[in-house]
Specification:
The structure holds two protein chains of two kinds. Chain A is mostly helical. Chain A has two domains: 33 residues; 33 residues. In chain A, 64% of the residues lie in helices and 0% in strands. Chain A contains three helices and no strands. The radius of gyration of chain A is 17 Å and the shape is flat. The termini of chain A are far apart. Chain B is of the alpha/beta class. Chain B has a single domain, classed as TIM Barrel (Alpha-Beta Barrel), CATH 3.20.20. Chain B is built from nine helices and eight strands. Chain B has an eight-stranded parallel beta sheet with strand order 1-2-3-4-5-6-7-8. In chain B, strand 1, helix 1 and strand 2 form a beta-alpha-beta unit. In chain B, helix 3 runs parallel beside helix 4 and helix 7 crosses helix 8. The longest helix of chain B has 20 residues. Chain B is globular, with a radius of gyration of 17 Å. Chain B starts with a strand and ends in a 16-residue tail after the last helix. The chains are: A mainly alpha, B alpha/beta. Bound molecules: zinc ion. The site of zinc ion has 6 residues of chain B, from loops.
Chain lengths: 77, 274
């Protein structure tokens, strides 16, 4: 498939997923209290920034945003 | 198309689902021992569960022309109490001799703790004694990346382990390459919310090729889909992949991997899906 064909097939799905994300973030914003200190919100905004890159390893990098680090000295820590 | 679901917890599913899987072309399932959603209160409970997997489930599946094979082990979720886990491990040798048992699994890590590692090392030790294949559960969500690397560290430091007889399961985009690079089989699990979707699984096959990849539903008592492998087949077709490639992933690969188990015999005749 060409890039245009992939885009044609996926455009509406991407559109609806982005709108869903916007709606959830708005819902959090409208709700009582604040969640701004919650590190998960920081991860979400890091993820959203990453989507704007144009490298082809975004999925893997997004996964790493939501991963704990690996400590190679785990046997002795 | 005939397919194999190499990782599914049918003990948590209904007979109707065996039927619908058979209608979709399922000819064989692999069922790893796992956590039933609540901690068991004693080793007897494990003993009965192992009997269920080795005696009862094969009969239930056979009514629909599906061969049922299983893996014996204690899941990382119940590995934290090392003493209790040792008692359960002591039950395993008897079951490893049953004709439908494929090896030790699913074993691995959950929260990547020291106790989980201790239990895991004992399970690997048992596996080496009786020449078993090993099926590894990798942790969920944020624990997956460090946990997968820890499992690979453990395996790398044990020269007795034949990497072609080990599956690292529940791989995702950030862990699949390391499993494949070290010569292991890599399982990809299709789940509605966590783990992978059919489309992302097709992406991974396009990126890394079909060799040593197993696609499974891991359907259990939680949100999951026993028809996830057919959903993957459909996604592959929609993306224009040939039937031969799809068949390699959902049929030939699992047969090849399971073929490494000392007890494995596959006798089901190919049957046309409805
Ligand atoms: Zn499982």
């Amino acid at each position: 498939m060409t890039a245009s064909e992939v885009l044609e097939r996926e455009f509406l799905a991407v559109r609806t997923k982005l709108i869903d994300i916007a709606a959830v973030l708005d819902r959090i914003g409208r709700a009582n209290g604040r969640a701004t200190d919650d590190p998960r919100l920081g991860k979400i905004s890091q993820g959203l920034k990453l989507l704007a890159d144009d490298d082809c390893d975004r999925t893997e990098r997004l996964q790493m945003i939501f991963s704990l680090p690996y400590n190679e000295n785990w046997r002795t820590k | 198309m005939n397919f194999i679901d190499p990782h599914i917890h049918m003990a948590a599913r209904t007979t109707d689902e065996f039927m619908v899987m058979a209608k979709m072309g399922c000819v064989l399932v692999g069922e790893p021992a796992f956590w039933m959603g609540y901690d068991r209160s004693g080793t007897n409970s494990f003993y009965d569960y192992f009997r269920q997997l080795t005696e009862w489930e094969p009969k239930r599946a056979a009514k629909y022309g599906i061969e049922h094979h299983c893996w014996m082990g204690i899941n990382a979720k119940e590995a934290e109490d090392v003493g209790f886990a040792e008692e359960v491990i002591a039950l395993l040798p008897e079951f490893l001799e049953k004709p439908t048992v494929l090896g030790i699994g699913e074993i691995g890590l959950h929260k990547n703790t020291r106790n989980e590692v201790t239990t895991l090392l004992e399970l690997i030790e048992l596996g080496m004694k009786t020449d078993e294949q090993l099926l590894f559960h990798t942790p969920h969500l944020e624990d997956k990346y460090p946990g997968t690397r820890m499992i690979l560290d453990i395996l790398r430091s044990d020269s007795r382990i034949d990497h072609t007889r080990v599956c690292i399961d529940h791989c995702e985009e950030h862990t699949i390459r390391m499993a494949l690079d070290e010569g292991y089989w890599a399982g990809i699990t299709l789940y509605p919310i966590t783990k992978a979707t059919p489309e992302r699984t097709v992406d991974m096959i396009e990126l890394y090729g079909p060799q040593r990849i197993l696609v499974n539903s891991s359907a259990d008592w939680g949100p999951s889909d026993p028809l996830a492998v057919p959903a993957f087949i459909f996604a592959m077709r929609r993306r224009g992949h040939p039937e031969s490639l799809i068949r390699q992933v959902v049929y030939d690969n699992p047969l090849k991997f399971m073929g490494g188990s000392r007890n494995f015999k596959f006798s089901a005749k190919p049957q046309a899906a409805l």
